[in-house]
Design brief:
By secondary structure, the protein is α/β, with parallel strands linked by helices. It has 21 helices and 31 strands. The strands form eight sheets. Strands 12-11-8-6-7-14-15-24 form an eight-stranded mixed beta sheet, with helices on both faces. It has a seven-stranded mixed beta sheet with strand order 5-4-17-16-18-19-20, with helices on both faces. Strands 22-21-23-25-26 form a five-stranded antiparallel beta sheet. The longest helix is centred in the N-terminal third of the chain and has 17 residues. The chain is globular and about 75 Å long. It binds 5'-O-[(S)-butoxy(hydroxy)phosphoryl]adenosine.
Length: 651
């Protein structure tokens, strides 16, 4: 039977129970876990925390005396790098490979747990020698190379707080994030590689380092591409020199369970990114637990691969901390999915015998477009479980993933969570949960999610509304760095300090399964990357020729959503479309470049001058226009509509 006929046939199958052979061998087989967790949440989370090695046991599981500022496992002391590295070495597993690292040009480096143990201690001492102390912020702006993992773990070893910036962001964006978090040290490469080309990262960082402000004392440079790199005396140091000079032994600091662990900036409703703060004990507990349960992990048998970048929370939790806490062997890949060819992912799955593969719907849609011949070139028979994250997965992509990559035998875990939640919250347990393509199914044991009516705030048993989380969870963000007020305002103002407002709309079906629809705020999800319309707007408006801009998201077959910008120019110039796209790439990063720019003499505004994004969204999506009576100048809409129609006929 050909593939499309098979997919059509599968489409009729609405539910996929765990395959028999899978169910019997699964890590979790007892459906009683949900009730057990609900009966006594504290005992439940306490049991999960016992997975870790604690230097001192906690006295309180959950301190909820000052909601929404919840504190977990207070009184406990532990160290993340000890849990991710030392304890495996101490148990005699030092020779086990932590990462099969694979470079873009085919280079390979196997990094064992013993290697990490050696490198993390040395780099931790190097950081100390540079003046980094407990609680200091260390910026990490590195590509997917083993040093990024070493740098993160070294921070956790000494109680420094890492602030990783995705390597695809611009140096300007990086500098902004360093400035607002008052980073003391920044770690960057000399340059980075992408599809056979190199880019001079350090030079770009130099150009903006002055904007970071006084907090920044040192820049550590990793020799990655080997290009000539100017070093500033007294400020810059080479990674390899700092490591060579460092003492080999650095005992892990016993840190408070609530010691700040990392900040990760993510987009919100305003142009200012949110510094999401995670702490030590609760984060590692939930990440280690979910990584084992959701991925049915058998650390001695599995080879695990998450294709994300460490610069996103998925990489933090499910490339670095979860897999290392569980002592599994992972694949880490530096490059793009289509370089040197479009089969590179599948070649790596075959080469390393990957058993568990975790990626994003946008990547799956790209693979569908490229064609089944690429996966067909490789033996994928070792795969036994597939995961999806980042945005709702459309049933067509789900079925293709299931059939073409999973050979029809692998359960798919569609995992819903956020930078803020730190770890997976809603997902099937693959040995227990019947899946439905497109639904992330039900909350994990210990997690409680509800749908509230948008206008009344009442709980809905089925139907659509606002997704909220009604019980605190260990890996939850503790605050927005340096901005408690915005933290409360963003997540807890609407329904009070016990009810976390997710920012997603979702639907619950008759079986209690959740179907996430998308964001309710001005956040756009492009290829699973979260961007704020306000941030993109302010980047566009900072171009000297631009008078005004409004940005909206529209549905896109490949990237989930795409950015459409409506721009009014102050003054025309040469190839303005390109100029603006380049400008946005420089300010934020290539991923934020608008896919479509629509020039307009004016934007639809209310009488009080507010831009009506709702109408722009309707235009961008080609929908019938909603109510335009509140507009100051209804003619603006007619003009815009014809402009968009013009653009579409050019495509
Ligand atoms: C937003 C969070 C989770 C790590 C990567 C993104 C959307 C995430 C799913 C899913 C439907 C999803 C939500 C969420 N999202 N996973 N499985 N199904 N939507 O983290 O950048 O913080 O974005 O991504 O809209 O709120 P993030």
């Amino acid at each position: 039977m050909d593939l499309s006929a098979r997919l059509e046939e599968l489409q009729q199958v609405e539910r996929f129970p765990p395959p028999d052979g899978f169910r019997e061998q699964a890590v979790v087989r007892d459906a009683g876990v949900y009730e057990e967790a609900a009966r006594d949440r504290h005992a439940w989370w306490e049991r999960q925390a016992e997975r870790l090695d604690w230097f001192e046991r906690w006295d309180t599981v959950l301190d909820d005396s000052n909601p929404p500022f919840f504190r977990w496992f207070t009184g406990g002391r532990l160290n993340v790098s000890h849990n991710c590295v030392d304890r495996h070495v101490e148990a005699g597993r030092g020779d086990k490979v932590a990462f099969h690292w694979h470079g873009e040009e085919g280079e390979e480096r196997d990094v064992t747990y013993a290697d990490l143990h050696r490198d993390v201690q040395r780099f931790a001492n190097a950081l100390k020698a540079l003046g980094v102390e407990r609680g200091d912020v260390v910026g990490i702006f590195l590509p997917m190379i083993p040093e990024v993992v070493v740098a993160m773990l070294a921070c956790t070893r000494i109680g420094a707080v890492h602030n990783v910036v995705f390597g695809g962001f611009s140096a300007t964006s990086c500098a902004e994030r360093m400035e607002v978090s008052a980073a003391k040290v920044l770690i960057c490469p000399d340059g980075s590689r992408r599809k056979g080309k190199t880019a001079p990262v350090k030079q770009q960082v130099d150009a903006v380092a002055g904007d970071i402000g006084e907090s920044l004392e040192r820049i550590v440079v990793v020799r990655n591409v080997g290009d000539d790199t100017p070093m500033q005396e007294g400020r810059d140091v080479w990674w390899h020199e700092a490591v060579d000079a460092a003492d080999p032994e650095c005992p892990p600091e016993p840190l408070d369970a609530e010691a700040p662990m990392f900040i990760l900036y993510s987009s919100g409703s305003t142009a200012k990114p949110k510094g999401i703060l995670h702490t030590t004990g609760g984060y590692l507990t939930q990440v280690a637990w979910t990584h084992q349960w959701v991925f049915d992990l058998k650390p001695d048998e599995d080879v695990y691969w998450c294709s994300a970048d460490v610069g996103w929370v998925t990489g933090h939790s499910y490339i670095v901390y979860g897999p290392l806490a569980n002592g599994v062997t992972s694949v880490m890949y530096e490059g793009a999915p289509d370089y040197p060819d479009k089969d590179v992912w599948w070649a790596l799955c075959e080469r390393y015998g990957v058993t568990i593969f975790y990626t994003a719907p946008t990547a799956i849609r790209a693979c569908i477009k490229w064609g089944e011949e690429y996966p067909a070139r490789h033996d994928l028979s070792k795969l036994r479980l597939l995961g999806s994250v980042g945005e709702p997965i459309n049933p067509k992509a789900w079925l293709w993933y299931h059939e073409v990559i999973g050979g029809g035998r692998c359960p798919i875990v569609d995992t819903w969570w956020q930078t803020e939640t730190g770890a997976i919250m809603v997902s099937p347990l693959p040995g227990l949960t019947e899946t439905k393509p497109g639904s992330c199914t039900i909350p994990l044991p210990g997690i409680e999610a509800k749908i509230l009516d948008e206008s009344t705030g009442e709980e809905k048993d089925d139907g659509q509304g606002l997704l909220v989380l009604t019980q605190p969870w260990p890996a939850m963000l503790r605050t927005l760095y340096g901005d408690d007020e915005r933290f409360v305002e963003t997540y807890f103002k609407r329904f009070g300090p016990e009810t976390y407002l997710v920012g997603d709309a979702a639907r619950k079906d008759g079986d209690g399964y959740l179907w996430v629809i998308g964001r309710i705020d001005d956040v756009i999800n492009v290829s699973g990357h979260r961007l704020s319309t306000a941030e993109v707007e302010s980047a566009i408006v900072s171009h000297p020729n631009v008078a005004e801009a409004a940005v909206v998201g529209r549905h896109d077959e490949d990237t989930g959503q795409a950015i459409v910008a409506f721009v009014t120019l102050r003054e025309d110039g040469d190839d303005m479309e390109r100029a603006i796209r380049d400008h946005v790439a420089e300010r934020i990063g290539k991923l934020a470049r608008p896919k479509r720019i629509i020039w307009s003499d004016d934007l639809p505004k209310t009488r009080s001058g507010k831009i009506m994004r709702r109408l722009l969204r309707d235009i961008a999506e080609g929908r019938e226009l909603g109510d335009v009576t509140t507009l100051r100048d209804p003619d603006v809409m007619e003009q815009l509509k014809s402009k968009v129609a013009e653009r579409q006929s050019e495509e």
